[in-house]
Amino acid sequence: MEVKIIRSPRRRRSVSARIVNDLLLVNAPLMLSQERLDKIIHGFKLKFAAKKLKNELDKEKNLAHLANALNEKYFDNKLKIESIEYSTNQNSRFGCCDYRTAKIRISHKIGLLPKWVRKYVLIHEMAHLIQPNHSRAFWDIVSRYKLTERARGYLMAASINMREGG
Fold first, then answer.
1. How far apart are CA 62 and CA 162, in angstroms?
2. How many domains does the chain have?
3. Among 2, 48, 61, 93, which one is most buried in terms of CB atoms within 10 A?
4. Spatial distance between the Cα atoms of 80 and 99, rounded to a whole number of angstroms
5. Does the model's pTM come out above 0.85?
6. Predicted pLDDT of residue 82
7. Within this chain, do residues 47 and 125 fall inside the same structural domain, yes or no?
8. What are the φ and ψ backbone dihedral angles of 42, each rounded to 5 degrees?
9. How far apart are alpha carbons 138 and 133 in whole angstroms?
10. In the β-sheet with 16-20, what is the strand arrangement from edge to edge?
11. Which domain holds residue 44?
């Protein structure tokens, strides 16, 4: 990504950035060191790349559409989901569900895995809307998905590979 830096003597502390036609336009204070600015720009690049990935996943691998199909098939359309979206800052969990607000967040890493694994993670989080814990009743709901054990094994192996850098 090409970067254009505009330094201003009027700007004292803050650095801002925006994308304009694949150009990262950075506004920075005149007196900010180049070393410090390079670190800030690196952070902006990561932030904008994550946002782009999230938008691509939302477009290509839409969670709401898949959740609606799973709600119909496994939950008789009884679940009311307030929102379901990918999250690019959720790196230690595959998904999370706030059963009080009916909001579900799925790690962007799940969007890069096979659809049958994504279905399992969605069913797992959707089941928390009924059972907010990992009780026997919860696992009875999740195990209605015939690829549950296979998906859990896949995710265990994927977790090990992610920790090892693979």
1. 24
2. 2
3. 61
4. 10
5. no
6. 95
7. no
8. -60, -45
9. 7
10. 2-8, 23-29, 16-20
11. 2-59
